[in-house]
User: Which sequence fits this backbone?
DNA sequence: CTCCGGGGCG
DNA sequence: CGCCCCGGAG
């Protein structure tokens, strides 16, 4: 086991992934990539990274953008607070730090949207600080190889893994070690069906020797999923313009856009929805109110199961806050609404 | 269809 | 510690 780090580096030397943000030591680009990759697979994050970099070459460009622009570019990636925090932090660094990116672990940790993992990743990749970047891959790799059964959702376990990783990380090329751990975790020591047969540490791996691969890492989590019932109204005025609004409350999809909405606690009848919409638009007659039954969907979030239905109607005058349908592409919508729009305007 | 994986915030 | 999102695997 003493040779684990050396074997890992040898493996990495041959098998490393070629990722665009690894070809740079530009802290801004590394930070951007790490924020995008939080809770996100490389495959999905890659095109977003390319678009953000080409749209915002420097942190000044990102700081100058509006939040709406940033959210629009982030559209579809999920966990939108990452985008809001990233934008906030860009402005903070430009206005408060004179555009100088923090250059060490503890200063990086102060930034909004930057936690333990991301601070370590930036510190080691951009500034070669020997601090271990412990992400989900690393928990998995270390728990299996060393047989650590502490529940990784607890703070105590996180400290144990962090300090073990900090013992393993070499002073020389700590960035390479961190990359290697994560590549190994995602390519070989995978959550499901890990490639133990081609693993360099197989014979010494606790989980493999004890047939505990499926049991490690130990992770307790009991999320209770709440059901919510969303009813969106595609309301066209006489100009065929539609009404959208920005979500602002402290809820999912904050600051993204949507259609007028009625939310209920349970499955609701169409007539109930109609009368509730009529209350919202109390001074206007809703013409030809009907449900677009083909568009109903269930959308799963971590803690919520959304039952989404769509309705359409018209009003016989011109609405002040309506937009032309072609302009929906300027606004950031949650994925289910984005899919609705694509389907609706594609075929009608 | 359901479930799982992946960091940080308030 | 509850909550934030989506795509892909099963």
Assistant:
């Amino acid at each position: 086991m003493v040779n684990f780090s050396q074997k890992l580096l040898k493996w990495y030397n041959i098998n490393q992934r070629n990722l665009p943000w690894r070809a740079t030591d530009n802290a801004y680009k590394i930070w951007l990539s790490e924020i995008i990759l939080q809770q996100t697979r490389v495959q999905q994050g890659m095109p977003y990274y390319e678009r953000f970099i080409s749209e915002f070459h420097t942190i000044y460009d990102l700081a100058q953008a509006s939040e709406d622009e940033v959210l629009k570019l982030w559209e579809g990636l999920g966990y939108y607070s990452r985008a809001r925090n990233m934008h906030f932090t860009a402005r903070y660094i430009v206005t408060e730090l004179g555009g100088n990116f923090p250059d060490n672990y503890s200063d990086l940790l102060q930034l909004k949207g930057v936690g333990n993992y991301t601070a370590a990743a930036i510190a080691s990749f951009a500034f070669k600080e020997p601090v271990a970047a412990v992400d989900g891959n690393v928990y998995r790799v270390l728990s299996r190889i060393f047989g650590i059964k502490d529940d990784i959702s607890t703070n105590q376990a996180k400290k144990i893994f962090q300090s073990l990783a900090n013992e393993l990380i070499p002073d020389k090329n700590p960035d390479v070690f961190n990359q290697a751990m994560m590549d190994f975790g995602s390519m070989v020591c995978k959550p499901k069906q890990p490639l133990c047969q081609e693993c360099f540490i197989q014979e010494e791996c606790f989980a493999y020797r004890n047939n505990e691969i499926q049991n490690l890492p130990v992770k307790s989590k009991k999320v209770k999923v709440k059901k919510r019932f969303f009813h969106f109204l595609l309301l066209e005025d006489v100009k065929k313009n539609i009404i959208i609004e920005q979500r602002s409350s402290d809820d999912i999809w904050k600051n993204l856009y949507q259609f007028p909405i009625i939310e209920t606690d349970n499955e609701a009848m169409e007539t109930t929805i109609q009368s509730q919409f009529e209350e919202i638009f109390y001074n206007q007659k809703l013409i030809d109110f009907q449900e677009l039954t083909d568009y109903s969907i269930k959308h799963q979030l971590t803690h919520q199961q959304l039952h989404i239905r769509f309705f359409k109607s018209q009003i016989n005058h011109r609405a002040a806050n309506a937009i032309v349908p072609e302009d929906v592409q300027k606004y950031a919508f949650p994925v289910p609404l984005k899919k609705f729009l694509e389907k609706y305007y594609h075929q009608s």
About this structure: The mean pLDDT of chain A is 93. Chain A has two domains: 4-210, 226-347. Residues 37-41, 79, 81-82, 85, 112-118, 135-137, 191-192, 298, 300 of chain A lie near DNA strand B (CB under 10 Å from a C1').
